[in-house]
């Protein structure tokens, strides 16, 4: 791979036809720069894809390895745990971690989070956000020459990625319900834009088929407890009452249990619920 030299203030100054000091004033948002000159410098910065260095320690050349993490909402259990694990391992290696949360859905929001990290002069990037093939390639391009690792993309996407195995989790969930004698099983998947959600759904299908069971319904949530509640309530209101549910994460499972209870049914006795992730709080959920 060709090591592309980062664009400097001198490069911007030469391109815009102004002095280094003028570019520095624009970058630092000084007020004594004419609007015309500011526009010319900003246009040059955009054309050259110049990323301002806003970290004073880095300007002094004293920065240790800095890893940037662009992530889905940290209000969700899995992303927060992944970031915590990255931070813990980075601490062991003497590296630092800076996090940028993807505030909206879509590839442009992910690219904005990446750019925010690049502005802090990270040494490498970890992208924990669901992306289809073309969007993932576009985000990788936005990473410029900074190494990037993706955690929620297809293993067929031609970029650096790590894919989590969901074989054991889906198998154990299905085997548990089958051992209890369940045949009427509903599936509540995560958002199918997520590779993890698709792999969990595929795993359920694989092991249900091995046991000659077809799910009586399939629903799609967004990982949140509220989506678990809404999807389960809608299912029950439609008159579809399974004896068991396989749910793609524990937060949606919590919402599903609330819907079951509010519908006058009993969790465990009427409808068994198997979540996924084994979150710490799940030990305090209703147990039967």
Describe this protein's structure:
- With 288 residues, the protein is an alpha/beta fold.
- The protein folds into three domains: 9-48, no CATH class; 56-150, Rossmann fold, CATH 3.40.50; 167-284, Rossmann fold, CATH 3.40.50.2300.
- The protein has eleven helices and eight strands.
- The strands form two sheets. It has a four-stranded parallel beta sheet.
- Strand 1 (66-71), helix 5 and strand 2 form a beta-alpha-beta unit.
- It starts with 8 loop residues before the first helix and ends in a 14-residue tail after the last strand.
Q: Would you identify the regions where 5 or more consecutive residues have pLDDT less than 50?
A: none
Q: Under the CATH scheme, which architecture of the largest domain would be assigned?
A: 3-Layer(aba) Sandwich
What is the strand arrangement across the widest sheet?
2-1-3-4
Largest sheet entry: 4 strands, parallel
Tally of individual helices: 11
* Proportion of strand residues: 5-15%
Class of the largest domain, according to the CATH hierarchy? Answer: Alpha Beta
Rg result: 24 Å
What's the count of strands?
A: 8
Distance between the termini: 56 Å
Overall geometry: elongated
Overall SS class = alpha/beta
CATH topology name of the largest domain? Rossmann fold
Number of domains: 3
Order of helices and strands: HHHHEHEHEHEHEHEHEHE
Identify the CATH homologous superfamily of the largest domain. Response regulator
Average pLDDT metric: 88
Helix fraction, binned, reads 40-55%
């Amino acid at each position: 791979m060709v090591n592309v030299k980062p664009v400097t203030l001198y490069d911007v100054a030469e391109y815009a036809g102004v002095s280094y000091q003028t570019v520095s004033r624009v970058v630092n948002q000084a007020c004594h720069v004419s609007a015309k000159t500011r526009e010319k410098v900003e246009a040059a910065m955009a054309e050259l894809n110049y990323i301002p260095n806003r970290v004073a320690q880095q300007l002094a050349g004293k920065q240790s390895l800095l890893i940037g993490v662009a992530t889905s909402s940290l209000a969700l259990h899995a992303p927060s745990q992944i970031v915590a694990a990255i931070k813990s391992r980075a601490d062991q290696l003497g590296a630092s971690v800076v996090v940028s949360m993807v505030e909206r859905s879509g590839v442009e929001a992910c690219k904005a989070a990446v750019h925010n990290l690049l502005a802090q002069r990270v040494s490498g990037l970890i992208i924990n956000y669901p992306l289809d093939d073309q969007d993932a390639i576009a985000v990788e391009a936005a990473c410029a020459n900074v190494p990037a690792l993706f955690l929620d993309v297809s293993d067929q996407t031609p970029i650096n990625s790590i894919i989590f195995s969901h074989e054991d989790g889906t198998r154990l969930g299905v085997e548990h319900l089958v051992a209890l004698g369940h045949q009427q099983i509903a599936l509540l998947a995560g958002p199918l834009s997520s590779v993890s959600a698709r792999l969990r759904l595929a795993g359920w299908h694989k092991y249900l088929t091995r046991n000659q069971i077809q799910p009586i319904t399939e629903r799609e949530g967004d990982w949140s407890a509220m989506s678990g509640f809404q999807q389960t309530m809608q299912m029950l209101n439609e008159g579809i009452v399974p004896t068991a549910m396989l749910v793609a994460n524990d937060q949606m499972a919590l919402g599903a249990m609330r819907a079951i209870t509010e519908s006058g049914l009993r969790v465990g006795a009427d409808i068994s619920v198997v979540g996924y992730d084994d979150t710490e709080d799940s030990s305090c959920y209703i147990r039967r």
